[in-house]
Amino acid sequence: MNAQMVLTTGREALTLLLMVSAPVLLVVLAVGLVVSIFQAVTQIHEATLSFVPKLVAAVVVFAIAGPWMLGTLVDYIRRTIESIPALAL
After folding, report:
1. Closest Cα partner for 52 from 70, 66, 32?
2. Is 71 strand, coil or helix?
3. Does residue 21 sit in helix, strand or coil?
4. Domain count, the chain
5. Residue 12 in contact with residue 50, Cβ under 8 Å?
6. Residue 69 has pLDDT above 90, yes or no
């Protein structure tokens, strides 16, 4: 295993991490922004008002995109494990 292979594997892992986490992060960011604007307009500063909608949005995103996320991660892990014999060369 040379340095190029290590860098390629690391880059693929980071790209996969960003790709899998992006849907949840973007939805929670959007919901947080909407809730913050709502709190600023109505001057309601309740801690649970900012937490609960983000939690619900994250659960909904996981319910919708979860199978895709899991499939993508399983495919990456399978490819990584299958490439182990080639590393011995």
Report:
1. 32
2. helix
3. helix
4. 1
5. no
6. yes
Cβ atoms of 89 and 59 closer than 8 Å: no
Kindly list the distances between the CA atom of residue 7 and the CA atoms of 11, 30, 65, 78, 85, in Å, as whole numbers in the listed order: 6, 33, 29, 19, 18
> What is the tens place of the pLDDT at every residue in 1-54?
788 888 998 999 999 999 999 999 999 999 999 999 999 999 888 888 889 999
Tokens 């973007």 locate to 26
How far apart, in whole angstroms, are the C-alpha atoms of residue 89 and residue 17? 28
Expressed as residue numbers, the domain containing 69 is 3-87
**Token code pair at residue 74:** 């399983």
- Mean pLDDT confidence for 55-82: 95
